[in-house]
Amino acid sequence: MRILTLNEENKKNILENLLKRSPNQYEEQTKAVAEILDAVKTRKDEALFEYTKRFDRANLSAETIRVTEEEIADAYGKLPKEVLEVIRKAANNIRIYHEKQKQYSWFDSDPSGVILGQKVTSIGAVGVYVPGGKAAYPSSVLMNVIPAKVAGVERIAMVTPPGPDGTVYEGTLVAAKEAGVTEIYKVGGAQAIAALAFGTESIAKVDKIVGPGNIYVALAKKAVYGHVSIDSVAGPSEILVLADETANPTYVAADLLSQAEHDELASAILVTTSKELAETVAKEADRFVAQLSRKDILEKSLDNYGYLLVADSMTDALDAVNEIASEHLEIITKDPFQTMTKVKNAGAIFLGEYASEPLGDYFAGPNHVLPTNGTAKFFSPLSVDDFIKKSSIISYSREALEPVYEDIIRFAKAEGLTAHANSIAVRFGKEVK
To answer: Three-state SS across 339-389?
Structure first.
């Protein structure tokens, strides 16, 4: 990994390099995605099966696209018991954490007859995309589905790419059953997003689509926004470790690689006040890469988006942390809790040398669906809030409206909206022309 001095020029260059990974930069894929979306919207199942055959080499039909209860039961039989046990423990932690996020309807009244409030309602139908391809992600199932269940969503339709034999990884199916998915379909890519957004003969339309995927999935979600809601347009995975001289370089190197192995576009950055730490981390990272199974991916990721930045002070380091606004931020300093108070922008913050990023990915409970590409400056992790709608409640008695109705008429006239004014005036025997 390259070691650089943290200065304004290097920070600017790094930010520009990271932004190249944004889904907004892929014009060629955007055109291909638009064609797929239009085909599925127009020809529905016919196009869905064609694209699944073309991209996943799986022959599907209306009879086989939906995962059956028998297939799920078979998945339970194949999955090692110890893995099932871990899935259940993780699901419980995730459920407990997200239960604390629940919001409830509320109403407030006063003696004059004014009642104001907020009605909280869960979204009716949610589509969850679960990646396949280079790796299977049962953890992604739990993180996307459980908050929806906690929110009270009644219909949760999951889509995931099948293998050429038309099967789905048993861990994914078991996690879906444990989390509470109501229906599962063997389809992936932009065509799956189109099916969820527009509906086909086999897959009914949903109201919101969540879940990560490749660039085609990300661009498809962006394109269907407005027809349905989405969680976000996710970019490649990111980790930033903020460390001082007290950090263990072996831990830091291992943690950086935990995200770099996701794909060639993943970024792994260390910001530290210790040049000695940076140099040792570089050596440890090289040692780990040489022995890890995803060596090729790690090397490409680190070559393109891996940085070890040495700052003059913790203030400068924190400025860079807030500017980069990483998806995952680990703070390994002498007093990580104090350091954390200076952080403004990060998806998830891990404090101390034993809170490594994979703890959040799999087990702790907070959601691992996080803002990427600097969007932590204005987006939050996936939560129960993403699966609810809020309606404002307003009720006035005549006695409550009478003292203020002329103010409302005056305001409406100031905006030139006489019908608005008239709607109030007629209730008191007057008319506005």
So the answer is: HHCCCCCCCEEEECCCCCHHHHHHCCCCCCCCCCCCHHHCCCCCCHHHHEE
Q: Read off the pTM.
A: 0.91
Among 169, 213, 163, 220, which residue's Cα sits nearest to residue 39?
220
* 50 catalytically annotated: no
Are 277 and 249 spatial neighbours (Cβ–Cβ below 8 Å)?
A: yes
Alpha carbon dihedral 352, 357, 359, 360, in 10-degree steps, equals: 110
Compute the chain's Rg from CA coordinates.
25
Q: What is the pLDDT of residues 109-147, one digit of tens each?
A: 999 999 999 999 999 999 999 988 555 789 999 999 999
Which residue among the candidates 98, 262, 328, 368 is catalytic per the annotation?
328
pLDDT in tens, 376-403: 999 999 999 999 999 999 999 999 999 9
C-beta of residue 393 within 8 angstroms of C-beta of residue 116: yes
CA dist 194 and 205 (Å) reads 9
Q: Which residue of the set 170, 261, 284, 327 is catalytic?
A: 327
CB 103 within 8 A of CB 151: no
Sheet arrangement for strand 306-310:
2-5, 306-310, 267-272, 238-243, 328-332, 348-351
* Helix (H/G/I), strand (E/B), else coil: 134: coil
Instruction: Answer yes or no: 328 catalytic.
Output: yes
User: Cβ contacts of residue 52 below 8 Å, gap of 6+?
Assistant: 58, 60, 162, 186, 187, 188, 191
User: What token pair was written down for 107?
Assistant: 């109403």
